[in-house]
Design goal:
This protein has strands spanning about 1-10, 15-25, 30, 40-45, 50-60, 65-75, 95-100. The protein is about 0% helix and about 55% strand. The relative contact order is 0.22. With about 110 residues, the protein is an all-beta fold. The two termini are about 30 Å apart. The strands form two sheets. A five-stranded antiparallel sheet has the order 1-2-5-6-7, with no helix packed on it. Strands 3-4 form a two-stranded antiparallel ribbon.
């Protein structure tokens, strides 16, 4: 579950830029074993931390009064790897998001 908080700036009535931060929570999940044996799956909470923090920047285009399209890049700030797998040093979540949204505007 990710919870973002952002500030948006709209200019020329159609374009927007935004930025903010996001807190993510990892509650459950399984990682399949390499040998295909489903009985050896590893609990995701053994590999990843429970919480992570990221910052993001994005741009968007307002299609009409209610619909818009956005492109956002998240940069992970926290190391989400807790040391359960040998051979990895640090994991940070970084990703792009392309979205179409509906917004309640006056």
């Amino acid at each position: 579950i990710n919870t973002p908080l952002s500030l948006h700036y709209i200019f020329k009535e159609k374009f927007q830029i935004f930025g903010g931060g996001e807190i993510g929570l990892n509650f459950f999940g399984d990682v399949p074993s390499n040998d295909g044996d489903f009985n050896d799956d590893q609990d995701l909470t053994d590999i990843l931390t429970t919480a992570d923090v990221s910052v993001f920047l994005g741009v968007g285009y307002i299609i009409n009064n209610n619909f818009d399209i956005n492109l956002r890049y998240n940069l992970g700030l926290t190391d989400i790897y807790n040391g359960a797998v040998i051979g990895f040093q640090e994991w940070k979540k970084n990703w792009f998001t392309l979205s179409v949204g509906y917004t309640f505007r006056d």
